[in-house]
Design brief:
about 475 residues; six-stranded mixed beta sheet; 13 helices; 19 strands; about 20% strand; globular
Length: about 475
């Protein structure tokens, strides 16, 4: 579930550039891995992450990794939702490991809705099309390819490098490999820090990288069920008590409520940078809001942009409804799912209490399983951000880099309990329309994929020593 990049800065149009042919032998080898992963259907309940993980393990072993270096994992109840962990041991026992985290499952894609087969990698006009070409098989392929190249090149890092490619990130109710690892095998993934999806960058109107982003923190996703019940009866004799109307009243109360404005160090830095790139009325309002988060007038101006609005606070929105049992009967039950994205540091219990207050006494509100942990914002650490900026000067000269908090959620949220910060790495630059991620005809500019691959390879090497 890749985070919305660079929230609140107006998206610009662009003319797509034709990618140059990628002729380096190492690029062709990478493309083979990437193509195989994209064309392996990993939709939970339909395809197999276990198959994809096994394919990656086979490539790792061919590169020289031993069986002891590779862990394929799954659970009996979810045999097709497996993942893979690989470890390249470092030479310095005092240097804590680093983790390369990615997910290999993808959002469902219906062939009849797409212009192209979503599970065939197709190149057109300098873009690669297919489900997962960005989210998250681009980064997962880069991580696996990097581990292979390190071994083939005889690279001996000071810091141990771990890689975990997991399933279940895109589906709330599925077996989640990242959660399973942190609960059951933290030894396989623990370290000083990890790199993950969620960062990246954005192209501008001229087809050149306009901004880079490093994700430092994210919200926690949590679903809630609203339920209204009544005795019902014959529709020819309606009564004021109606489950559908009562549910509607509760949902409208949620719709009309804004959670309070809050800042983390990351979002404060983000808004400080953002006000330099937006029109004066919005810039002035951001300045006021940074000084006083309770300034309602400033909040109203800034929040006209939906992404800035979401970056400022917890948000909750109705996403599913189900009501009634017959056309000619009063409804006995009406339910709705409300999806919340909870601001770092805030709890599920606190959000539930507010939703119950908004829903009123006639509607019950419950938190759905699984209950997500509190999102713990990482520190804006110069030891992490510094190398990102230094290597960006080589690959993206003159391109500014912003810290950002994702308004979405990734598997990073599961690492707070083992005290491990996870950062969304920059490097893979996307289009202003977000490349069809989670939607139709997902795509990535081929040149952006290869440039991001080179950047991330050098970045990991820099951290590893």
């Amino acid at each position: 579930m890749r985070a919305v990049l660079l929230a609140g800065i107006a998206a610009l149009g662009f003319a797509p550039a034709i990618a140059e042919a990628q002729d380096r032998p190492d690029q062709k080898t990478f493309f083979s891995l990437y193509k195989e992963l994209v064309e392996t259907n990993t939709v939970v309940g339909v395809g197999s992450c276990t198959k994809a993980a096994s394919q990656i393990a086979t490539r790792l072993k061919a590169a020289g990794y031993s069986d002891a270096d590779i862990t394929l994992f799954s659970v009996p109840e979810h045999p097709e939702d497996g993942g893979v962990v690989a470890i390249l041991k470092g030479s310095d026992a005092k240097a804590k490991p680093m983790l390369l985290l990615g997910h290999i499952d993808v959002v469902a894609a219906k062939r009849e809705d797409w212009k192209r087969d979503p599970f065939k990698l197709i190149e057109e006009n300098g873009f690669y099309y297919g489900r997962g070409t960005v989210d998250d098989k681009a980064m997962s392929s880069v991580w696996a390819d990097s581990m292979i190249r390190f071994k083939q090149q005889g690279f001996h890092p000071k810091r141990t490098i771990k890689m975990a490619l997991t399933c279940g990130e895109e589906t709330t109710y599925a077996f989640n490999g990242a959660q399973w690892l942190t609960d059951n095998r933290p030894d396989l993934v623990s370290g000083e820090f990890g790199l993950n999806e969620g960062g990246g960058g954005r192209f501008g109107a001229n087809g050149k990288p306009e901004l880079l982003a490093v994700q430092v923190g994210e919200k926690a996703a949590q679903n809630f069920t609203f339920t209204a019940t009544n005795p019902g009866g014959h529709s020819s004799a309606p009564t004021p008590d109606n489950a559908i109307y009562e549910l509607d009243d509760a949902l409208r109360a949620v719709q009309g409520y804004d959670f309070p404005v809050k800042f983390t160090d990351t979002t404060r830095a983000f808004f400080t940078a953002t006000k330099q790139a937006v029109p004066a009325p919005v810039a002035d309002a951001i300045t006021r809001l940074l000084a006083n988060p309770a300034d309602k007038q400033a909040d109203a101006i800034v929040s006209q942009d939906k992404l800035l609005h979401s970056t400022l606070r917890t948000t909750c929105v109705a996403t599913l409804v189900n009501a009634g049992h017959a056309e000619n009967a009063l409804p006995q039950r009406a339910t709705a799912n409300v999806n919340c994205r909870i601001f770092p540091g805030e709890t599920v219990d606190g959000t539930l209490a507010k939703l119950k207050e908004l829903a009123g006494p006639k509607v019950t509100v419950t938190a759905n399983q699984p209950i997500r942990p509190v999102a713990v914002p990482p520190v804006l650490d110069p030891k992490i951000v510094g190398p990102m900026k230094a290597i960006a000067a080589k690959y993206f000269p003159g391109t500014p880099m912003l810290p950002m908090m994702s308004t979405g959620a990734t598997d990073a949220v599961f690492f707070g309990k083992i005290g491990m910060p996870i950062y969304g790495a920059p490097g893979i630059v996307l289009e202003p329309d977000m490349n069809g991620i989670h939607g139709l005809d997902e795509r990535i500019r081929a040149s952006a994929l290869y440039q991001g691959r080179d950047y991330l390879f050098d970045l990991v090497k820099a951290y590893a020593g």
